[in-house]
Write the structure tokens for this entry.
Amino acid sequence: MEMVNRPYAAAFEAHAVRHPEVLCLSADLTSSCEVDGFRDRHPGQFLSLGMAEQNMMSFAGGLGMAGFRPFLHSFGVFLYRRPHDQLIASVAYPRRRVRLMGFLPGVTTPGGMTHQAIEDIAVMRTIPNMTVLEAGDATEVESIVAEADAVDGPVYCRILRGSVPRLFDTPLRLGRMRVLAEGTDVLVVTAGIATEEAMRARAALDRAGVSVRHLHLSTLKPFDPAPIVDHAASVRHGVVTLENHLVAGGIGSMVAEALAEAGLGKPLVRLGLQDTYAHGGSRPYLMRHYGLDALALVRAVERLAGQDTGIAEADLSAVRLESVHSAAKAEAL
Amino acid sequence: MRNERSTEDVARGIRRRVFEHSIRNNGGYLSQACSAAEQLAFLYTEGLTLGPSTRPLVPPPFAGVPSAANPGYVTGAGYNGPAAPGYDRLFIAPAHYALVAYACLIEVGRMAPEGLEQFNRDGSSVEMIGAEHSPGMEVHNGTLGIGLSTAAGLAWGRKRRGEAGRVCVFMSDGEVQEGQTWEAVQAACHHRIDNLWAIMDVNRQQCDGAMDDVMAVGDIAAKLRAFGAVAVEADAHDVGALREAAATPHEGRPLIVLARSSPTKGMESLMSRFPRLHYVRFSSEAERAAMNESIAAELGIPPVPLEAH
């Protein structure tokens, strides 16, 4: 699998230099959000707002009034927990073209509860006027910048940083889901880093004779339920969602709402954080510990299909190993 | 656009209008009119460079919130004139001063007196807590402490675009209890945003009562200066002092005029309610009638004719 180093850094710079009304804002996490190079090369387009996210959010609303399109760079968690009031009043209500670049979604950070955005999708998708996007690979990280910046209103993006696998060869397009497999037994719906896990599980399930239909979501809001319902109706056993987020309010909830409103009675298993906080640790450890990985998905599919596939951990090919402390960022924050 | 009436005369009109409205409706933000009348009058008659209103004299009804499905949405900023590069912009940060701000718009000819009859009526845009779509408003400020940050962002953007117009925030002193206000001041100083200025109604009152009892804030001017801003103090009821304070040079830094005001200025009878001044609702018909008589006498106007009950 091709790994791409810092796809956001290059994509943002390429986009911003072509659009002078794009501004790069940071709240003291500039290198952690891969925009330190941009700051150094384009200081006139960079605004340091310090550790003051409430002000940054309203300030960005003011920049939007002046016709600029600020990109706010921080960890996802800092873009909605502390400044939620400012997010609503200064950005979302007036539909400012503010782009919230949320790094380290879910358990992709070893920083524990304070750093892990585990309810961001739930929060953001309930906010009127908000668009919510999530990148699942390097290609989507690269294309999310321009796609988000084309939205006439505020956008929240879950961004992956550092070394990111390339899973797709076509760009992220607003409102378009990816159909990654068209099996007939079980529908699997994933987003973000969960998609890579599902692709790994799918290969093993195929070999075991379980036919998986797999959808990858990158636009979480607006959400069109019709295709989800159609895909769910076309499989034999039911639906599994897997997400790097709490199962409440995220894609598990979105799928449940879609099925219920359509009156489609299919069993649904929602994998993700089950009404719990996570703690600090490496991403592979956290995904295993909280049941967000390929093995958890295999077991869920087995339950739905009523079938023991015999798949063991060793069968899940090429689990990508990643150490908490990478050379790119010694502190890993 | 300069107003033909003097600032003092407009301020008198604001007090009278808010008083008459509050007596008729058995309540209102009377104290805010007492403290802020000269400040808002000063801003609209001489402190700000504003173009003529672009909106109807009688405000149209509420026309929906901003959404992709509401392309005709407009804010109430048109009452302050067009958002042209040379004109100033004004945010009323304490949105509960809306009644006073509406009264000011009427006094300076930007809104018809009938507009105030829609105040706090269902389906009206003349809302009790000023909303984006309310006359004279451009952003939501009902959550206190966000106004200065928004203005700082707008001011930075206008400066970057080379626009001559400045950004002014009418603030309340209670907002200095909010951490965001200090975040905004430090950011405005760090980024040398000097096309930003504010006039703060320092009436030392807040919803629960006197600020010193609720949460003492100390020396606001000293704190602002320590954060890097230019802060000047002025008697809020002396238009000459406001004029002089607003003219203070502040190159490279935001200016905050601390307008030291009385929450009962011009209506000293309200002192009988102290410290319950944030929203005046009369406790009995007797109190209402007595206030009607005594405040009218102070303002030098006839009492409001009240319907018999």
Q: What stands out?
A: Residues 319-330 of chain A have pLDDT under 50 and may be disordered.
